Structures are given as C-alpha cells and as structure tokens.
Amino acid sequence: MKKNQSSSRRKFLQQFSFSAAALAVPALAGAAENETPSFAILKRNGGISNLDNINLGLIGAGGMGVEDTKTALLVPGVKLVAVCDLYDGRLKDAKSRWGADIFTTKSYKELLNRKDIDAVIVATPDHWHQQISIDAMRAGKHVYCEKPMVHSVTEGPAVIKAQKETGKVFQVGSQGVSSLGNEKAKELLKNGAIGQLNYAEGFWARRDPVSVWQYPIPADASAQTVDWDTYVSNTNKRSFDAMRFFRWRNYTDYGTGMAGDLFVHLFSSLHFITDSFGPNKVYASGGLRYWNDGREVPDVLLGTFDYPKAAVHPAFNLSLRCNFVDGTSGTTYLKLVGSEGAMDITWDSVTLKRNKSMNSDDPFYIEKLKSSGQEISDRKQMQGPESITFEAEKGYKGGPYDHMNNFITAIRKNGKVAEDAVFGYRAAAPALLCNDSYYQNAPMFWDPEKMLLLKK
Ligand SMILES: NC(=O)c1ccc[n+]([C@@H]2O[C@H](COP(=O)([O-])OP(=O)(O)OC[C@H]3O[C@@H](n4cnc5c(N)ncnc54)[C@H](O)[C@@H]3O)[C@@H](O)[C@H]2O)c1
User: Fold this and answer.
1) What is d(CA 303, CA 322) in angstroms, rounded to the nearest whole number?
2) Would you say the CB of residue 273 lies under 6 angstroms from ligand 1?
3) Band of residue 52 on the pLDDT scale cut at 50, 70, 90
4) Residue 294 and residue 239: Cα distance in Å, rounded?
5) If you average pLDDT over residues 128-149, what whole number do you get?
6) Who's near 342: CB < 8 A, 6+ residues apart?
7) From the CA of 294, how far away is ligand 1's center (Å)?
8) Binding site membership of 330 for ligand 1 (Cβ less than 6 Å)
9) Hey, CA dihedral for 314, 349, 403, 303, is it positive or negative?
10) Does residue 148 have a cis peptide bond before it, meaning omega lies within 30 degrees of 0?
11) Domain locations in the chain?
12) Is any ligand 1 atom within 6 A of the Cβ of residue 231?
C-alpha cells in the first residue's frame, strides 16, 4: 500500500505542481484553459444515448418522485405513462402536471402488470423500497429506486438476488455519484493530490421546520383519501394517522432517520471516490434536543466509522454529523483529508487545499531525516497556490440528470449503472447500522466485503 501510495503521489506531483505549466496536462486541461491556477472548470463529455422510447411508471409521486420524473423526462425518448400513489391528492396532481391521459392507480401491482411500461421509479417512503423494487424486477421492469435502497440492513441481499436473477437494470438514487464533482475528486485522489487518505467527514446543518421534516399535512388528509391499510400492510398495524403518513421520516416504521436520509448520500459519494466497500465498525450517538413533535428519531446525530485497510485504500476514519437545531444553518459537504492536503467535495465543485510546506527546523525531525539517508537543504523552494477550485462548466445539467441519464443509457445499451444493488447496499448498510448503534447504544460490526453483520 505504502509503495502504491507514494508512487501515485509522485505521479500526482509530476502532473500537478500547481504551476500554470503543469496545469496544461490533459487531466487538468480545464484549469489550463481558464488560465488561473487556482480555478478550473469541470466538463461533461459525451452525448445523449440513442432515442429508443422508454415508457416510465412512477411509484410514489411525492416530492422526490416528481423531481426524479421531471429529470427523467429531460432525457430524450423517455415518456411517462402511469403513476401510482396511495393519496388521491398526488394522483390528481400527476394528471394536472403530466396530462389527463396518464394512467393512475393506488395499486403498484396494477401498474407493474401493464405491458407498456419498461422502467419504474420507486420513490415511496423507505419501508416500501425493497418489496416494490423486487416485485418490479420480477415483473420485468428496470428500476430506479430512491435511496436508501432498503429500510433495514437485513433487507439488502434479497434485492441483490432479484437483480442478479432477473438481469434487470437497477439503479439506486444517490445522484452525487454520477456528478462531475465526485468524478473529479476520484481522479484527484487517485493521482495523489492529498497524499495518503486518513480521514473523511461530512455534515448537515438545518433549522427551518420543513427542512427538519415538519411537512404540511393536506387539508383533505383522511382514511378516505389515503390508502392507509396498504401503507401499513408491511409494518406495524395502527389506525390512520396523517402525521405518520405525510411526515413519515420521523417514524422508524417507515423512515430511516437522519442516517438513512442524509448520511447515505455521503457514503455513496465516499465509496465512489475511494472505491471503498465500507466501514467495519459503526458507532453513533445523539439525541432528541428540540423537535418534540412526537418523532421517534433524534434531531442531532453523530456517527463515527472505521474503514479498514483495503487493496484500494489505506485504513481511515469517517465522522458524520447532522444537526436539525443548528441556529447558524450551514452547508453540506464531504471533506477528504490526507497526509498532504484535503478536498471539499460537492456535486459540482471540488476545492483542493495543500500544505504549503512540509519542512521543519525541528532538530529532532532533521536528525531523523538525516539518519534515514535523506538530504537536508535549506534552499528555498518554488511554491504553488495553496488552494485550487474546480467548478462545473456553466450550463452543467447536474448530478441528478447525469444519474438518471446513466440509468436510461444502461437500459438502452444493456450497460452498467453507477449505483447497482451491491453498491447501493454497501452505501445503505453503514447508515442503517448507525441507527442500530444509536438505538442499541452499542457499536456495530460489519464485514463490508462480504456484506455481513458481525457478532459483537
Ligand atoms: N435522492 C435524493 O436526493 C432524495 C431526496 C428526497 C427524497 N429522497 C427519497 O425519496 C423517497 C421519497 O421521499 P419524498 O421526500 O419524496 O417523500 P414524500 O412523502 O414527498 O413522497 C412519498 C410518496 O409515496 C407515496 N406512497 C407511500 N407508500 C406508497 C406505496 N406503498 N405505494 C405507492 N405510493 C406510496 C406517498 O403517498 C407519497 O406521495 C424516500 O425514500 C427518500 O429517501 C431522495
């Protein structure tokens, strides 16, 4: 590992010395074009896939289902033919948004029975992802399933099995993995831009009620307008409760808390960038500090994750945190830290910061260098900028489009997706184990390669 890392570091330093001349190498051509060494443009190459018609069905037509469908309809040749939802209001909205001839139903099985549908988007609450995805693949449909792929860590293998047995294209919806920002970060890490990775972190800070899951409840919400019996048919039976239906993220029967909703995005990006299979130890702490609205999930959550040494990366630690009572609000970011620098990564930008100098006049350090046979020189060196930002070119359609286009292209060309069932499970598992750790007040141990929960 050390040998690989130092040779990739040398490679990076050869390619990327922060001088304007070095920026002219092909991997960093965007920077050279821009002619400022501290800023570079990320470009998306490649055209659109061929135009074979793809007929789409949407299952779960709430916030994300509508967004995913709007994105899918931007890909040439995609047509929406049917929408399924358990609430009348969403079906009415679907017809007014996409036309009266759209087929609507409250039964996803009725939608899956239609022969004219090639692919479905599954954007229901998390507790339905597994069953609907499996039923859809077995009914011959390709599936774009929202994250997290599954609601509990035990549910993943059945999705992987269904995907393998049916050969259908299955993509999980963490859009970041298809973004220019994630691709650039992967390239920079591989080229040694931050030296040897040892730490990563990410956080969310939110404060306003809607962002922290106090969604509006429609005035007509009732057991007449909602198919409640179906909603709870795969979990604990209860009588109709509009809060549990429209604010499902707050309840463990349906949602997966902050970890399943938000941490999972960072696991997906981190695993894509590092090629990691995941952590082997997960520990969470947190609490319900403010939003005492009946929710069963914490509103402050911290997770720490140990990534063991693997063939493709050294051992490193990950720290994730989410605060829904953060008066400063703030940003979501993924930071990767290495021995020689760090990267702040978003879907459309990467800011790379490097240590200016590693030199020291500490006598002990100098003695150590000498005894290891290294030459000591007090000659000053050329130095490049400490920071460089790569930004997506103006007009970039974004990670969500790239991710959906990746799914549609895979269907048309019988190709691979960025986030298949195995990848999706490896991203979901540590997030779900984070919840298990929080509720059980104990660390969780996971074999990321074999995807197995280990005994404590
Ligand atoms: N990738 C992302 O960035 C992103 C962002 C937001 C949400 N999501 C994911 O999308 C999913 C939906 O989240 P949302 O915010 O859109 O929630 P939402 O409540 O707005 O929408 C969910 C919809 O599913 C319907 N539904 C519930 N059970 C159903 C069933 N069995 N069959 C058919 N319809 C059913 C509900 O009536 C509702 O309209 C979640 O898994 C969430 O994690 C992903």
Assistant:
1) 9
2) no
3) confident
4) 16
5) 98
6) 194, 335, 336, 352, 353
7) 20
8) no
9) positive
10) yes
11) 2-27+179-214+248-376+384-390+422-454
12) yes
CB-based contacts of 450, cutoff 8 Å, min separation 6 = none
State whether residue 72 is helix, strand or coil. helix
- 112-132 burial, b at 16+ Cβ within 10 Å, e below that, comes to beeeebbbbbbbbbbbbbbbb
CATH number, domain 2-27+179-214+248-376+384-390+422-454:
3.30.360.10
Q: Which residue matches tokens 């463990």? A: 252
C-alpha 375 chain-centroid distance: 45
H or E stretch covering 162: helix 156-166
Q: pLDDT tens digits, residue range 12-32? A: 444 444 433 233 223 333 333
Q: How confident is the model at residue 42 (pLDDT cuts 50, 70, 90)?
A: confident
Q: pLDDT band at 356, cuts 50/70/90?
A: low
Q: How far is CA 48 from CA 136, 266, 345, 404, 409, in A?
A: 26, 27, 26, 12, 8
- Whole-number percent of the chain with pLDDT over 90: 79
List, in sequence order, every beta strand (DSSP E) within 222-315. 281-287, 300-307
Tokens 């190709």 — which residue? 415
C-alpha distance from residue 419 to each of 137, 227, 289 (Å): 16, 32, 35
Give mean pLDDT, residues 222-245: 98
**C-alpha 377 to ligand 1 mean position (Å):** 61
User: How far is residue 155's CA from residue 76's CA, in Å, rounded to a whole number?
Assistant: 34
pLDDT of amino acid 408: 97
